[in-house]
Every structure is written in C-alpha cells, then in structure tokens.
Amino acid sequence: MVALLQPAPPGGARLLGLGSYLPARSVGNDEFAARLDTDDGWIRTRVGVSTRRYAGSESVADMAVDAAGKALAAAGVVATGVDLVLLASCTLPSAVPGRAGEVATRLGAHAAGALDVNGACAGFCYGLAIAADAVRSGSARQVLVVGSERLTDWVDHGDRATAPIFGDGAGAAVVGPATHASTEIGPPAWGHDGSNPSIIEITRADPHLRMAGPAVYRWAIGLAPVARRACALAGIEPADLVAFVPHQANLRIVDALAAALQVPHVAVARDIVECGNTSAASVPIALSRLVERGQVRRGDPVLLLAFGAGLTYAGQVVRTP
Ligand code: UT7
After folding, report:
1. Cross-strand pairs, 20
2. Model confidence pLDDT, tens digit, residues 156-200
3. Which residues lie across from 189 on neighbouring strands?
4. How far is the centre of ligand 1, averaged over its atoms, from the C-alpha of 161 (Å)?
C-alpha cells in the first residue's frame, strides 16, 4: 500500500534542539610554531585562532552521531520520529558513499530519508533551509541537520597558510513544526559566485585543501548585504537580533561582518578563537555553544550566515530552541 503524505503542519518550521561535539585534543599555536615558519602572534592577529580541536580515531560519522544524539535529547525527539537526516560535510573519507545513511542507521532513525549535502562551509545553512522546507511542505515532520568535519584529513600540515586555520568537530539541529509564526526559521538568503571556483579546492591531483586566502577574504567581508537580506526575509531589523552566528572562517571576517551590520549590542559568535574553522560544522557548533553558555534564551532571534568553497553562501534568521 502506498503511504499517504502527511498533511502540511499549520505553522512553519522551527529549531527544536541543538547539540555539538568537539574532539578532546586541543592544539595550540605553539605546535605550529614548533614545526612551521609561523608564530602565535601571526596566527592570533591574522586569523584569530588560539586553539583548535583535532579528532583522533573518531570519524565524520562518529562525531555526527554524537552531536545529533545530543540535539535529539535536547529536542525531546526520539530517533524513530525523524523523517529525514541531512549530513553537511566536505571532508568525508570517500566520494561515495556519503555518510548520512550510516548516521541515520546508527541513531536508530530507521524510517528516515538520508542525504549528504556538500555545500562546503555553507552546507549546514543550506541543509537547514531544506529541512525547514521539508517540514513546511509536510514531506517530513522532524528533520535532523548535522554539520560534521574532519578538516585535519585534508589540510596540508606542512602549509603554514592553511594548516593553523582549521579544526574538527560536529554540530546538529533538530527541525520540526512551528505552531507560532514567531518561532519560525526564516527563509534563506542564498547565492553563489561560481566565476572562480578554484580559489578553494581539493582536487584528485592534489588531495589537500588549497585556498587563495586573500581573494576569499575580500569576497567574504562583502557578504553583509546577504546578512541584511536574510533579516529582511524574516521580517526583522538587524538591530532586533539578539545574536549573530557567522561561519567561523577568520576572526577578522567575523568582526568585519558584525561591524558592517552595525549591531554593537548583539552577541557575536567568536568560536574560531577556541575551535578554529570547522567548515560546515562551525555554525551549528557556535550556535549550540551560545545556548549552552546562556548567551541566548528560548525564542531569541539569531542570524546565521555561512559561506565558502564554490563559492556559495546561505543565511537565515532562526529562533533559539
Ligand atoms: O572557510 C572557508 C572560507 N575561508 C575563508 O573565508 C578564509 C579567508 N581568508 C583568510 O582568512 C585569510 O586570507 C588567511 C588567514 C588565509 C590569510 O591571511 P592574510 O592576512 O590574507 O595573509 P596573506 O595570505 O595575504 O599573507 C600575508 C603574509 C605572506 O607573506 P608575504 O608574501 O607578505 O611575505 C604570507 O606568506 O603572511 C605570510 N603568512 C604567514 N606568516 C606567518 C601566511 N601564513 C602565515 C603564517 N605565519 N601562518
């Protein structure tokens, strides 16, 4: 018998719970200074990283399962109630298979669809937008969105221009129906500039992350209009935000975007200082930690904005679960 589609929920979609996973090993700048032509001062002032976490034996899927389990527990949702699992990652050990199916199986989300989203550093925000639309349309009632990355598998540990920037970790969110418009996940402001995709790349010929840093930097600090568009789509003024969670690419980029938004009272996520750049995991880790630290309260409007290889970007306003 063909299963009937569920009726669309009356409201929209909202965040139900968040979770994150950070590997135990914390790597300080001195480890780079000891083996590369660099120093703590350069890394702190040019990138903003003091420490980053390096995974040991834990895989992208292991970290995703841990973060997702915490998000489900925070949401009070059982895995069997999840209809769709979206895994955002650009550092899987293989091109095929993806790992969303493994993550869903290990969580016990046996009835869920499972899809990998490779939007590089923007992947989580794209996944969140897809999740919200799936809930709004009624094709899924509860969706798990996870960003999980092992950048340390792909960086060139001998390249001082990239190695100190990146770290490993995972963050997750459960998305479900919203019965009130004020708890809605806002529509995404998304887009791309594919005119020069090779400025961040990992290729078959050179399986290390290569980045034309200054070019990416100039592009990223120009994304404030996208942040404003995400606010406008959600019907909110930037001044009414309680927090801003941009992709943790570089502390100078975080600060430049926050300054351009002219919201000095808003809590700005600066996880890059302690976690480095964890690509698709950076936004959900930072959002999760804002909640854990009590910097945002239930229902607070928070602007997410992620950007990276491709070049692609996506952002939306969410309400803290
Ligand atoms: O997450 C995906 C999206 N990624 C981003 O958004 C990253 C965007 N880009 C950046 O964050 C920055 O461009 C970097 C952090 C990657 C680099 O910072 P920068 O201030 O743009 O440095 P640069 O590449 O222009 O290099 C300046 C100088 C160079 O030396 P010369 O040519 O001036 O002699 C580099 O060789 O700094 C040198 N340098 C270093 N020196 C000490 C580069 N890396 C290091 C280092 N230690 N680790």
Report:
1. 171
2. 999 999 999 999 999 999 999 998 877 899 999 999 999 999 999
3. 315
4. 5
